[in-house]
Design brief:
Two copies of one chain form a homodimer. The first copy, chain A, is α+β, with helices and mostly antiparallel strands and 435 residues long. Chain A has two domains: 7-65 and 213-434, no CATH class; 74-202, Rossmann fold. The first copy, chain A, has nine helices and 19 strands. In chain A, the strands form four sheets. In chain A, strands 1, 2, 3, 16, 17, 18 and 19 form a seven-stranded antiparallel β-sheet that branches. A six-stranded mixed β-sheet of chain A has the order 6-7-5-4-10-11. In chain A, strand 13 and strand 14 (299-302) form a beta hairpin. In chain A, helix 1 (15-25) crosses helix 9, helix 2 (27-40) packs parallel to helix 9 and helix 5 (214-232) packs across helix 9. Chain A is globular and about 70 Å long. Chains A, B: It comes from Banduia mediterranea.
Chain lengths: 435, 435
């Protein structure tokens, strides 16, 4: 591998090695269990999962059903993405070749555009005709973006609709796809043009942030983690962050503050109890974040109820704003999971981000933040990121080596990330039932 | 990538670049066509295909349904094999985890044992319990092989049967697999212990060399190549070696010699006609080989009918012997395809061998032979081989580069190898109908 191998160290604290050893030992049973789960509940088209590895605990803290960051994956593993895309798309379009990607509308974010270009490139290499249909309201004609650092070129075409079909291009150049791959998390709402079309939309628009709640996901994750913990005989807390939620919060008007304070208090007590069972001497903390949303806005680290009560006006304003200017109306209070993974010297905090396509783990990277501590959200704007492609995929454990050896740690990451993927699959199944 | 990148040169002779350019240009249509084909006719569990790249022509010359050589694949691509194995096995064993591999019986071939160990290792890493059930007649108890160069350990267990079920181990250790993966080409006949068992055997025993004929395979390949050639608008000869066959040949007794001579003559005429159409100035040649068999025995390069008539006693004896001592009873006379790929200076002949699991290309290597010319069979014993793992998979073409750039050449290899895979899939489907 030509890529830099990240110099990451995990504090070898008690139970985590036990957990990793357990996952390795039970690998065949775990994989059989997953196969059964995917038969019952097909995996989402793709997803990325943010993990936190606290040494004593390894848990997902965010599951993104419309992932960006494909440009940060190790290009040596493109063949894995290509296989997985073929497998995912051949289920939707067994005999057709046209895929339309509907991207985010923020065309000035170079990082996102690089990710979009990488995704489109992978779909083309998997053997599909692929074009980009944009829902940007002011896009009248094709927009060519040819100044990306990667040298890739993007053509954004206005998404059009005729009857129950979406397409791009006109006349001889008209392109009616077999399926629409959504790469827009719909924070700004579900676009009418995608409603009730004959082409399948994957992942379904109903899973966009305009409908989805983090607490729904983590409620389903709790069930998945409990079933999995029973399978391998562990305390599900070792892979599951505790959480509570408040339905109506208005930070600016200080509405719902009592709910928040009492839930923070109860959650801190629950974490303290767990820490005492496992002899963990760290200070418990919780993360308060918007129920709907992404891009790390409206995320706050809280160590006591005082932290909530003493929020100043600026902090309130920050909590109240989420992506696309939506007001935060619900909040999830999630157990904070320390990250004990660091990069560099002096140490910067690092957290693994795992990518999956269909039910396959296809790679990942470390998100490194040199301005944030090990108990803070690292998916934050305004500070330098360092993306480190994994030099190994997460599918090749080596039982002959130490459980904390890199391929084995990556296997553990792949297992926990797929538990979150399974929770997302159940979210989709439930949404379809309610549809 | 850490592996050596082979220093291979392909003579850039006329049509081949055109063919590679055509394959790249029509990639999405080709992949769509393949998807349709796999829906109609599921791919074999695995296969390896020997290709010959003559510069003006790229064609398969041998398709092995029970491949060895897994130890020669680039370990960087293990994740690809793991994905593909998961995809292949989850169709056979969606809810179970036990796989039994039935290997060849020649336990003194270290190369084969390394391949077997690599295959078993991959199946385990794909998340299955895997054990080896041997049909060696004199194996009374487990045989441990722990002196392999790779450091891997193999346990060969006697294959047992109870009612319609095969298993290994006894008592608490009894292991009843969900499926049997056959890695024995059955040159010595179909073992009775595998007949009419309830567990699926894949690839099916009926595709072993005790039943299979090379001319059946290449007959089906001819149809596949014709359909494919029509799809992309080329002369199917560019991917298809001409062939003829003789049903009854006994080299020692000189029976069937007339059939051989007349077919060699007609085939040489056909090749000469094609060479003249394409302005190729090489001397046409044909390969005569056993209808059933592998391991490169009984393979002869023939440039004129005199070559057949003047065979001396030793050469006859060699042609008459195939693996496991079976007498050659039929022969296929196949258009010889020059290999223009060379390695080293002075140049040794090289030919690509492509591996597939399910319908996925998972890698390959170059077979290099320093004692053989570019018009000879390179799968020959008695001389040094050099296996060169591909440093790139065959699934990642790059249309922005020259058609002969390595990833693009590998894509072309992957397409032609899959054409042979499809012919093998049709062989299996036909065998099942006749079963």
């Amino acid at each position: 591998m030509t890529s830099t191998v990240p110099n990451l160290c995990t504090a070898p604290v008690g139970p985590v090695l036990k957990l990793e050893a357990k996952l390795l030992e039970r690998q065949a049973d775990i994989e059989t269990w997953f196969r059964r789960q995917w038969l019952e509940t097909p995996a989402p088209f793709y997803a990325s999962v943010d993990l936190r590895n606290a040494g004593f605990k390894l848990a997902p803290v965010d599951t993104n059903l419309f992932p960006a960051g494909f440009n940060n994956l190790n290009p040596d593993f493109d063949p894995l993405c290509i296989h997985a895309l073929q497998s995912a798309i051949e289920r939707i379009c067994p005999t057709a070749a046209g895929i339309l990607v509907v991207p985010e509308n923020h065309t000035r974010n170079r990082f996102y555009l690089e990710s979009l270009a990488a995704l489109v490139d992978l779909i083309a290499k998997a053997g599909f005709h692929v074009r980009i249909g944009s829902t940007m309201p002011d896009l009248e004609q094709d927009q060519i973006i040819d100044d990306l650092e990667s040298g890739r070129t993007l053509r954004l075409e206005p998404l059009r609709r005729s009857g129950d079909e979406v397409y791009v291009g006109e006349g001889e150049d008209r392109f009616s796809p077999c399926a629409v791959v959504l790469n827009n998390d719909l924070s700004g709402g579900r676009p009418a043009i995608l409603e009730a079309i004959r082409q399948p939309v994957t992942p379904p628009a109903i899973l966009g942030w305009s409908n989805r709640l983090k607490s729904d996901h983590f409620g389903l994750y709790q069930q998945v983690a409990a079933e999995f913990a029973e399978l391998i005989g562990i305390d599900s807390w070792l892979v599951d962050p505790l959480f509570r939620n408040c339905g109506k919060i208005n930070f600016m008007k200080r509405e719902g503050e009592e709910c928040l304070v009492s839930n923070v208090e109860m959650l801190l007590e629950d974490i303290t109890a767990k820490y005492s069972v496992y002899g963990i001497e760290e200070e418990p903390f919780v993360i308060v974040k918007a129920e709907a949303g992404t891009y790390g806005m409206g995320v706050m680290t809280v160590k006591s109820t005082d932290d909530v009560l003493s929020l100043n006006r600026n902090a309130r304003k920050k909590m109240a704003s989420a992506k696309d200017g939506r007001e935060v109306s619900g909040a999830i209070i999630q157990e904070g999971v320390y990250t004990f993974e660091t990069w560099n010297d002096p140490a910067d905090s690092a957290e693994p981000v795992i990518y999956m396509i269909d039910h396959y783990v296809v790679g990942g990277f470390y998100r490194v933040h040199d301005g944030r501590g090990r108990n803070e959200n690292l998916n934050a704007p305004g500070a330098r990121f360092q993306m480190l492609a994994f030099s190994e995929s997460c599918t090749r454990p080596d039982p002959s080596r130490d459980p904390d050896a890199q391929p084995n740690k990556f296997y553990a990451y792949g297992v926990v990330a797929r538990l979150a993927l399974l929770a997302a699959a159940r979210e989709i199944a439930r949404a379809h039932q309610g549809d």
